[in-house]
Design a protein that fits this description.
4 helices; 154 residues; golgi apparatus; transmembrane; 0% strand; Golgi SNAP receptor complex member 1; transmembrane helix
């Protein structure tokens, strides 16, 4: 009963976690033309949400692992063969669910971290390009003059 409750709770959390990770990538891509501070602020709040949800899910996975271990101990100590087979089947089902949830969590987490790293790198590149274009106006003028002079000399 406890395992089913935790599995249901984990399922809901994993769906929310997946939605958060998906909204992070689509939200960041949609704001490419906005100022540098807006995506950083939204990204940091999403990063905090991500970290909070990741910790909660890891705790639930740990609890479910503990319950599965207790069920395994009970199954090994039970003496009735027919009851033991049914319990083994139930235990295996719960282990499979735990393994699926763990795999899904790690996959979603890895995808999110990859997206976040990519966005940080791309944001840094965009910021460098923008700062080069806007911050070096004098240098651009000099460069243009040198290029014009070079063309005239050629």
């Amino acid at each position: 009963k406890q395992a089913r409750q935790l599995e249901n709770e984990l399922d809901l959390k994993l769906v929310s976690f997946s939605k958060l990770c998906t909204s992070y990538s689509s939200g960041r891509d949609g704001r490419r033309d906005s100022s540098d501070t807006t995506p950083l602020l939204n990204g940091s709040s999403q990063d905090r949400m991500f970290e909070t949800m990741a910790v909660e899910i890891e705790q639930l996975l740990g609890k479910l692992t503990g319950i599965n271990d207790k069920m395994a101990e009970y199954t090994n100590s039970a003496g009735v063969p027919s009851l033991n087979a049914a319990l083994m089947h139930t235990l295996q089902r719960h282990r499979d669910i735990l393994q699926d949830y763990t795999h899904e969590f790690h996959k979603t987490k890895a995808n999110f971290l990859a997206i976040r790293e990519r966005e940080n790198l791309m944001g840094s590149v965009r910021k460098d390009i923008e700062s080069y274009k806007s911050g070096s106006g004098v240098n651009n003028r000099r460069t243009e003059l040198f290029l014009k002079e070079h063309e005239h000399l050629r």
